[in-house]
């Protein structure tokens, strides 16, 4: 199976100054759009999901709260930094993590998961 994740990043400079980056998934194929993991209690962005997160962390904040889960997933995230360099590092790192997620998830769901029957004769 192939996985496609398209995303947009809106970068703004806010009062402070704060360098804000809003990353939003705009299209997916082969994977759920909720690829950003958040802390349930504080609703703070933690990281781009891993394959494990995609299979084990709910994509619904209300469900995460009602079930007492520590994390939930969403399809967009906002982060702010004090410096432009830090914001640009986040932009680059996040793009790489999203690419890794697409690659790893496709591989896990097409090559790893499933049942294999082998017959060994000696």
Q: Gyration radius, to the nearest Å?
A: 17 Å
Order of helices and strands: EEEEHHEEH
SS class: alpha+beta
* Shape label: globular
Instruction: Report the portion of residues in β strands.
Output: 25-35%
N- to C-terminal distance: 34 Å
Q: How helix-rich are the residues, as a percent range?
A: 25-40%
**Domain unit count:** 1
Instruction: Outline the low-pLDDT stretches.
Output: none
Strand order in the sheet with the most strands: 1-2-6
Mean pLDDT: 93
Helix count, DSSP H or I runs of 4 or more residues: 3
The largest sheet, given as strand count, sense and whether it forms a barrel, is: 3 strands, antiparallel
Number of strands: 6
Short description, anyone?
By secondary structure, the chain is α+β, with helices and mostly antiparallel strands.
Structure keywords:
alpha+beta; 3 helices; 122 residues; three-stranded antiparallel sheet; single chain
What would you say this structure looks like, in words?
- The protein is of the alpha+beta class and 122 residues long.
- The protein has one domain (4-112).
- 34% of the residues lie in helices and 34% in strands.
- It is built from three helices and six strands.
- It has helices spanning 51-56, 61-67, 84-112; strands at residues 4-14, 18-29, 36-39, 45-48, 71-74, 76-81.
- The strands form two sheets. The protein has a three-stranded antiparallel beta sheet, with helices on one face. Strands 4-3-5 form a three-stranded antiparallel beta sheet.
- A hairpin with a 5-residue loop joins strand 3 (36-39) and strand 4.
- The longest helix is centred in the last third of the chain and has 29 residues, at 84-112.
- The protein is globular and about 70 Å long.
- The mean pLDDT is 93.
């Amino acid at each position: 199976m192939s996985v496609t994740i398209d995303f947009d990043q809106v970068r703004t400079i806010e009062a402070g100054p704060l360098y804000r980056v809003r990353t939003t998934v705009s299209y997916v194929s082969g994977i759920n759009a909720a690829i950003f993991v958040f802390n349930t209690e504080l609703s703070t962005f933690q990281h781009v999901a891993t394959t494990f997160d995609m299979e084990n962390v709910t994509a619904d904040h209300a469900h995460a709260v009602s079930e007492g889960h520590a994390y939930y997933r969403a399809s967009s995230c906002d982060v702010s930094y004090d410096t432009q360099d830090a914001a640009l590092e986040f932009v680059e790192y996040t793009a790489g993590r999203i690419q890794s997620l697409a690659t790893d998830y496709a591989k896990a769901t097409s090559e790893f998961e499933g049942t294999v029957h082998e017959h060994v004769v000696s």
